[in-house]
Amino acid sequence: MDGRRFDLIIDTQRTLWTSLSLWRVAHGTFISPAARFLLSSKKPVTGYRFPKTMQRQLLDLLELACGQDFPSPKTLNLDLDPALSDAATRLLPDGPVYIGFAPGSGGPPKCWPLESFISIAQLQAAKGRVPVFLLGPKEDGWLNQIKAGVPEALFPLQDDGVQAAHGFSPLLPIAISKRFEAAVSNVSGAGHMFAVGGRPVVILYGVTAPKKFQPMTDKLTIIRAQDFGGPEMHNIPIDAVEEALEKVLTS
């Protein structure tokens, strides 16, 4: 590392030999779960069990490094800037029942077909609810197709002035998700944002393992493609998602 020294290194690897290579870099504090925290400058209490979900793992390592309460909580509740809540309320005013949809993800294998998202949104619109699609910068090309299929849908991140004021910061989608009655998402960053928003969320899994990539929320419904014939996302039937969504809306 060109002779550089780091005050803090947090290593997420769990294999001793690969973690040992990083440990050799000059450092002040080194945090690593490898070999039950053998190389770590700070260690958890006796009997501690490393979480199975990646998000909890990362937060536990951060908590350990900071010397704060440990382990990390099971849910997250961010103290958002009131200006973000005001912006979310302007985009989604009081009155309608909003249902959130996040059809994007890190790649095609993690995405339920867009046509299926459109079908679910149409069913919700027919019940008098307002579908709200959160589209990231890589999903702008879906805008016209969704508008054509679901004329009632809203796209708050594409509203005039939103990108100039907020860019694609994750904080505004979290604030917006608090306006939802419930939401449906692929396993993705947006799904984790919905979970932080505290509203019920139905998350669709294909090749991704739920136990590893489960968001931190107690209002989660998981639907696995494997339960319908295989890991490909298109195996998830529309009626299964609709049934799960209706269940959280009426519970």
Please render the helix and strand layout as text.
Blueprint: E1 6-10, H1 16-23, E2 27-31, H2 34-37, H3 54-66, H4 82-91, E3 98-102, H5 114-126, E4 130-133, H6 143-149, H7 162-166, H8 171-177, E5 180-186, H9 189-197, E6 201-205, H10 210-213, E7 220-224, H11 238-250
Parallel strand pairs: 1-2, 3-4, 3-5, 5-6, 6-7
Question: What keywords describe this structure?
Answer:
five-stranded parallel sheet; globular; Rossmann fold; single chain; 2 domains; 251 residues; two-stranded parallel sheet; 11 helices; alpha/beta
Summarize the structure.
The chain has helices at 16-23, 34-37, 54-66, 82-91, 114-126, 143-149, 162-166, 171-177, 189-197, 210-213, 238-250, and strands at 6-10, 27-31, 98-102, 130-133, 180-186, 201-205, 220-224. It has 251 residues and is an alpha/beta fold. A five-stranded parallel beta sheet has the order 4-3-5-6-7, sandwiched between helices. Strands 1-2 form a two-stranded parallel ribbon.
